Amino acid sequence: MLRKGEVIRSYPDAALGLNMGPQPQAIFLEKRDGVTVSEDYGKGFLENQLCVEDFVKIQQVFESQDPRQAIYLPREEFIQKMTETVGWGTKEEFGELFDKVDVARDGFVDWNKLTSFILLSLYERDERAKATVVPQWKDLEFLPGKHKDTIQKVVFLKSSSRYLTISKEGLLGVWGENLKLQEAFPITSDAAKLKHLWVTSLVSLENVNKIAVSFTSKEICFYDLLSKEEFPCQYKLQGLKGTPICMDYWYDPLDPKESVLSFGDITGKVQVIAFTAAVISLFERPAHACDDEEATMTIDWADLLSGCHKCCHILQHTFHRGDWVRQVTYNASLDAFISSTTSSTNTVVLAWREKSKKLLKMTSFNIAQGIHAFDYHSRLNLIATAGINNKVCLWNPYVVSKPVGVLWGHSASVIAVQFFAERKQLFSFSRDKVLRLWDIQHQLSIQRIACSFPKSQDFRCLFHFDEGHGRLFISFNNQLALLAMKNETSKRVKSHAKGVTCVLYHSLLKQVISSDVGSTVSFWMIETGQKIKQFSGCHGNAEISTMALDANETRLLTGSTDGTVKVWDFNGYCHHTLNVGQDGVVDILQILVLKKSILVVGWERAVTVFRPQNFNQFSIQSEEWKGGIHHQDDILCAAFLPPQTLATGSYDGEIVLWNSSTENAHHVLHPDYQRQLTSKLDPAAQKLNAKGSCSVHCMAEQATLAARNFEIDTEGNNAVMKLCFLEARKTNAATGGANLVSCGASGYVRFWDTFKKELLAEFLAHAGVGSIVMSTDKQNQCLATGDSDGWLKIWNIEDYCSNSTGNKITQSPPLLRSFQPHEDRISSLQMCESGDHLLIISSSADCSVCVTGLCDAPALTFGQASHWDIENYFSFPTRDANLIESKSQEERMKINPLFSKEESCSDSTQVSLPTEESKADSTHISSEEINFSLKYKNRNIYKKKAHKPCYREIIQKSASTFRSLCLSTLKELPEVNQPAFLLDPHKYFKEEPEEDEHRIPELPLLSETLKAVFDEKILFPKEILDHERQDKQLCQEANGDMKIKRKKKQL
Fold first, then answer.
1. How do strand 181-186 and strand 171-175 relate by DSSP bridges?
2. 689: burial class by Cβ within 10 Å (0-12, 13-18, 19+)?
3. Cβ pair 568, 523 in contact under 8 A
4. Nearest in space to 753 (alpha carbons), one of 742, 744, 740
5. What mean pLDDT comes out for the span 254-266?
6. Residue 832: phi, psi to the nearest 5?
7. pLDDT in tens, 495-514
8. What pLDDT, on a 0 to 100 scale, did the predictor assign at position 17?
9. How far, in Å, CA of 895 to CA of 882, rounded?
10. Helix, strand or coil, per DSSP, at residue 978
11. Is the per-residue pLDDT at 488 higher than 80?
12. What's the pLDDT at 51?
């Protein structure tokens, strides 16, 4: 049952269907997956016109002084009180609402009945909107790859947000989340053996970070994804009776030890390996195996059948009677294995697991002419089959006699089907290269997608839909095509035409600077949202991956995937081009501008450095970083703490601390270990050349081994994506608090003490979304984090890890706000101050740049038609303002005595309070958010006041900054006797008698003594003077010729 006040909070999506104002004639818009749909159904009903304020008023009617006693209203009393409380709507409409809520005809309704009905109606509207949404698609794109034979499988690795493709010849391609090929290599190093075998299938074992590959040699090999080598083979399963040609893997997310690997072969067998301790080990080590843990362990199929391995058991059946098994999968909701063939008998077989989990019960469907593929939708409980007879059939797994639905429309055999699970739709692709999207409820084709597919007649097609990213992959032999969904329709506000990659804030001009993948840079006014200028084609057609401002904010630096960093002024003129020294595409992730150097990182283990004192030409080449290479993997980010502390984070989770002046590294931080580095310019190491080089080599090997062991233990989710120094915490050296924050690919945020070289705290900010980004304000009072689903969270870190407790903290700081301003991955975050408000600026791959505050006001999007007033828009409500302000002042006095003492001297009348219009929104903002906003605003007001501190305040300031020093008043000095020469100056300083001075005779005037005019030419030889005369004549002749030519051109 719902409690009072939970109508919105218990159902987050319900807020999407509610009006934010009391206008009953508004049109209701629901946003789902970037598509805005006008919901005409039921918009005239009263329950669909109630806004949030109306529900708050209705809730007050049902409130009782005794929380344990509920209030019940009969029909007439309900109509009367609702009409008076809401203030609009007729009695007939409220009477109809009462009849809908009172389904049981009890004659009365209470708060629980009303909220249950509202939530149910909103859920039905939501489901109806999803079913009617037709996705929009971008142009078909062929991804450049290195496959030379048919692509057999495409899989997505959630842990690392990467795609894997494998082709028949054994070439494995690794693709980034941006669908750029990172590397490609043969899955086995035995080149001679590759000529005699083909790869048939590939599956990802997500819970153990492995992949399984099947070969025509009747083998299945298991490769480790966490190894530093190129996917070494860990297990080799051999001795199979038939060649496996299809595989599927499933694991229990609640118990990752339980997993199932199923595969079908060319003899008609469906075989299953059920693992019971997959996280510990897939197979037991045989007695005859060697002791080398990195060596490939050979597993014989006969040993598995005999039960020699206690950590797994085998299930199998031969119900397909010798036909090739084209597809196999295990579904946990059915607890059954589904397999298919192209035969018309036993086309689809369901092998149900008995209670003992070791026996199978068979049922089958007979489909005329057979099928090519199938898919199962667990919520609809339907199996869709791609028929060779041009039909797509829908089957109930428990009804084998006939399909529950047939989808007609293809004129050629259907070769692939896949459900769009969230929208309850179905994709189908036929041999004549026609792609259709079906509405399952109405069994109608709602979209026919026409694309310029290859014209070849003989092709093998692979069909894979990544629903999480809205990407549809279709392979044609060795070509991989991508059909990506558009994230929004034209009604959604766009800041850029393409995905936004980076955002900056210019504090002097009060402008927001944003860049996109189309090499465009835009400038926006933060106060109004107006675009003031735009630079197009900054790097040609290459993507701008990151940006930075110099220390004076007079130059803009843009980094691109073309391997260059360009230095611009704000008029669009490029002053310098910095070449990183790489041929081809590189991924520049961050530009860090220091006082005497510019650092660029992102694509290799070394730091690329440019020194501005050498900027005497347009094209600048990189210089050598004196500190050398200390990372074991690619550097992804960097941060700087004045005066000379530099931190760099890498893909393997290591954070290296450097001295920016000497460019030497001195420590390595990792969630599992910390170690000290030997300086590259160590005098002892220079004396011992051979021994020193050997020690460095051994140290590198130990670092590699330590990093590798840790990745195996923690599944390799410690990649450092962003680093931020907490510069406002200047006293943490004495208190032992955190001064460095890092966020990683697993959604964790970690706080470090770089003085004591230890990890103080870590907490999970975003679960199950991959990599996140973050930013903090100048006062380091709050932290903003954004994830790949478009969610933004704001945390209060003012007192978080301010002191060292000795134990690692795992509890998260107070969460101020959590919302979703974007519909796709948040690419960059910036926090700034505008007036008295703290603002968070976010950019996203959904082509938008948004700005929001600490209050619950909706985010503003740059590029929207109407401009805004940022000061008035993000004003917080004034509900119980005096009480809240007094509480916030008490909290400030507890947290920081310095501010409490100084703020007590300030004039309280200068604190600007919000207007009365904002009181209506006070119910949606927690007291913690309001207190934090008031505290932040009061601190900014204090900083702007011209306050002259007294002597006691100066002493208190000094004590707060240098709290380890003991200050006291100065003792009075004893009187000093004046020296004798001051008491009797006449005695020591007598005046001498005046003497007659000899007058110096005056010199005659120059005009009187000058006999002739001086000519400076007599100082030079005659040859030089003649040469000078000839040069002047030539110059005059050349100038005359130029003037004649100009006059001729004008004529």
1. antiparallel
2. exposed
3. no
4. 740
5. 91
6. -145, 170
7. 898 889 999 999 998 999 99
8. 37
9. 20
10. coil
11. no
12. 82
